[in-house]
TrEMBL record:
GO terms for cellular component: plasma membrane. PANTHER family: IMPORT ATP-BINDING PROTEIN, LIPOPROTEIN-RELEASING SYSTEM ATP-BINDING PROTEIN LOLD. Coiled coil: none annotated. This is ATPase component (LolD). It comes from Commensalibacter communis. GO terms for molecular function: ATP binding; ATP hydrolysis activity; transmembrane transporter activity. Signal peptide: none annotated. SUPFAM superfamilies: P-loop containing nucleoside triphosphate hydrolases (SSF52540).
Length: 234
């Protein structure tokens, strides 16, 4: 990815991880800046979710370099088993949207959204109210996840991902579990809200035609079945 004049928040160099079946996932050198909107594309099973796992600090790469905000050496924290530090960085600087919303079933919608703030001892009621109105979920805050629609649950996941003003939002197939008629609405709200916050967005999808309509830059996974490697060049 070419160097930009905007603030770099994430730098990585040749990170890789071997996962199930002996397949190795590799991500080449990348500089990710505020405002970037990146689409990682590829067929199901190629390792896109593993890539997001490494980028979200949830999965330890086997090798490589990752620096957050110029100076935080992520691989060094993994080597020193600083899992609490990694968890705090995830909560403070990252927002994550899983494929199926991933809401906690026994919490209300409001409690699900505010949970990341509780993890870092932060409160921002004005931002919370803005998000729930912007995403049109303000009328379901007292409901449990099973009491709302799939599309509403995905909107809740977007609000939860943005509640701590993250620098980086990671979205793993955010419309995979919804009907195509709902997919455009969710993508539109996600992209517009991301643009308003100025965060970087890294999304995975195999529905590239739909997703690229919203101004993302596509980076396809390159599969090398002979050597059992999936490579991504950012």
């Amino acid at each position: 990815m070419s160097k930009k004049q905007t603030k770099e928040v994430f730098y990585l160099k040749k990170i890789s991880r071997q996962f199930s079946g002996g397949i190795t996932i590799e991500i080449a050198t990348a500089s990710i800046c505020l405002g970037d909107k990146i689409l990682i594309s590829g067929p199901s099973g190629c390792g896109k979710s593993t890539m997001l796992g490494m980028l979200s600090l949830a999965l330890k790469p086997d090798r490589g370099k990752i620096f957050l905000c110029d100076k935080v050496d992520i691989l060094e924290k993994w080597k020193r088993n600083k899992r609490d530090d990694l968890a705090m960085l995830r909560a403070a600087l990252f927002g994550f949207i899983p494929q199926t919303a991933g809401l906690i079933p026994f919490l209300t919608i409001q409690e699900n959204i505010l949970m990341p703030q509780g993890l870092i001892g932060k409160k921002d009621q004005d931002w919370f109210l803005y998000l729930v109105h912007r995403l049109e979920i303000n009328t379901i805050l007292s409901h449990k996840p099973h009491q709302v629609s799939v599309g509403q649950r995905q909107r809740v996941a977007v609000a939860r991902a943005l509640i701590n003003h993250p620098l980086i939002v990671l979205a793993d197939e955010p419309t995979a579990s919804v009907h195509p008629s709902l997919a455009d609405g969710i993508l539109e709200l996600l992209i517009e809200t991301i643009q308003e916050t100025g965060a970087a967005l890294i999304m995975t999808s195999h529905d590239t035609k739909r997703t690229l309509q919203y101004g993302l830059t596509e980076f396809p996974c390159e599969m090398d079945p002979q050597n059992q490697i999936t490579r991504l060049y950012l």
